[in-house]
What we know:
It contains 14 helices and 25 strands. The two termini are 17 Å apart. Helix 9 runs parallel beside helix 13 (424-436). By secondary structure, the protein is of the alpha/beta class. The protein has a 5-stranded mixed sheet with strand order 1-23-24-2-25. Strands 18, 19, 20, 21 and 22 form a 5-stranded mixed sheet that branches. The structure holds uridine-diphosphate-2(N-acetylglucosaminyl) butyric acid (EPU). The site of uridine-diphosphate-2(N-acetylglucosaminyl) butyric acid has 26 residues, from helix 2, helix 6, helix 7, helix 11 and helix 13. Keywords: Cell cycle, Cell division, Cell shape, Cell wall biogenesis/degradation, Cytoplasm, Peptidoglycan synthesis, Pyruvate, Transferase. Pfam families: EPSP_synthase. Residues 28-460 form the Enolpyruvate transferase domain. The active site is at 141 (proton donor). Phosphoenolpyruvate binds at residues 43-44.
Amino acid sequence: MQIVGPNHLHGSTNALEVALTDDVLVVHGGTPLEGRIRVRGAKNLVSKAMVAALLGDSPSRLFDVPRIRDVEVVRGLLGLHGVKVTDGDEDGELVFDPSNVESASTDQINVHAGSSRIPILFCGPLLHRLGHAFIPDLGGCHIGPRPIDFHLQALREFGATVDKTPEGLHLSAPNGLHGTKFALPYPSVGATEQVLLTAVMAEGVTELRNAAVEPEIIDLICILQKMGAIIKVHTDRVIEIQGVKKLHGYTHRPIPDRIEAASWAAAALATRGDVEVLGAQQADMMTFLNVFRSVGGEYEVTDARPPKLGDPGQEGGIRFWHPGGELNAVALETDVHPGFMTDWQQPLVVALTQARGLSIVHETVYEQRLGYTEALNTMGANIQVYRDCLGGTPCRFGRRNFKHSAVIAGPSKLHAADLVIPDLRAGFSHLIAALAAEGTSRVYGVDLINRGYEDFEKKLADLGAHVERP
Ligand code: EPU
C-alpha cells in the first residue's frame, strides 16, 4: 500500500498504518455534495476573543463558539489561569469569569505545548493581570517557519522583558507596560492582535503602523471597544490605541467563519455540487466570491431577516454551486486583507484541477503552503510548483528558494488514493479531493480537521457524502 502524505510519513509503513487506523475516514468519492450546512463563529476570532476576556474585571459572554480543538486549548489555558469558563444557556455560548486570575505552573501550562498558536497572545493580558507570563512552545500548521519576532519586538517596545528558555518564554514587566509607536515589517495578523491586546491597558497612546486589518481583527477591536477600550482605525493600516486603566466584560456574537464557508464552497465546486452555507457573510468574502465567479462557480447571497411578529425571520447565507459545463482557469495571488486569503487557497486549488487551461497560484503569505499539491498529483492532478513569483508582483519569498507558486493544468480526472493529512487547511483540501475523485480513498489523520472545522463529519453526511469510519 502506498500512503501519500507529508514527506516524513511517505512510504508503505505498516507501523504508520496501525498508528493511524483509528483516525481514518473512508471516502467513496464521485458524488456531488448537496444540501445546507451552517458555520458558526470564526475560529480565528473566537480564540482571540476568549483571550480578551482575561482583560476584563467582570464576566464576558461569547456566542456561537464552535466545538473545535483550538477553543478547547484556549479554554484549558484560561482555566489554568483562574478564569472560570462555563457553558451558557444558548448552544455555543461560553461565559468567562476572570475575577480570580492567578498564576499557573510552567508544568501545567506545558501540557498545552505544541497544540496551537494562540498561547502567544496571552502575553499582554497576563502581563497586565499578573505582571508576568509563561508561554509554552507554539503549535499550529507547518506551513513555514512562522517566527514570532514581531510579537516579541512589540512586547519589548511596551517595556516587557522576554527570556527565552528551553521550556518556553518567560515574560515580565517590572516597570509596567507603556504605549509606544511601532511599525510592523509585514501586516501580521497575530502581531497586530498582540499589540491590540497589550496596548488597550498600557499607559499612554500606542500607534501601530502597517497593521493587519482582517475582518477578524476588526471584530476583535469591536470586542475590546465593548470592554471600554479606545481604539481608532485610521486609513493606511494605522491603528491608534489610547490605553485605559480598566476594562470590563463583553457580550459578543462573533463574525462567522469565512474560511470554513469558502472551504465548503470549494467542495461544492470540486464535486459539481450545490451547497448552501448558512451564516456565510458576503462582506467578509468579497474577494473569494469574485474568484469563485471567475472560475465559473455560481453563488446566491441571502440576506438575514430578523424575526418579527408572525414572521420567524430568515438566517442569511450564501448558496454555492457548479452550474454544469467546464470551469475556467484563473491566476490568483494570496495576500493580506482585502486580498485573497491564504487559507482559501488549498481548498480552491482542488476545484482548479477541474478547470480547463493553466491556473496560476502565487502564495505570498506563507513560504511553504503548497506541499499538499504532491498528494493531489498522486491522485491524477497536474500541478507544478516553482520558486519564482509567478503571475503577479514579486513577493518576500521570490529570492529565497521557496516553492511558493503553483501552475495547475486542467482539467484532470482525479482518482482515489490513500492520503495522510499534513495540516488543517491542506487536510480539508485532501478531503475535498477524495470526495471529488472516482473510487474509494482512505484519508488518515482526519482528526486534525477537528482543530478548525466543527462537526465536519456530520456536515459531510448532511451533504450526502459517502464517508464512513472503518
Ligand atoms: N510573521 C513573521 N514574524 C512574526 C509574525 C508573522 O515573520 O512575528 C510572518 C509569518 O511567518 C507569515 C506572515 O508573517 O509569513 C503572516 O503571518 P500572520 O502573523 O499574519 O499569521 P498568524 O497570525 O500566525 C493567522 C491565522 C492563520 C492565517 C494567517 C493569515 C490564527 C490562529 N491563524 O495566523 O490561520 O493563515 O493569520 O491570515 O488566527 C488557519 O486558520 O489554518 C491559519 C493558519
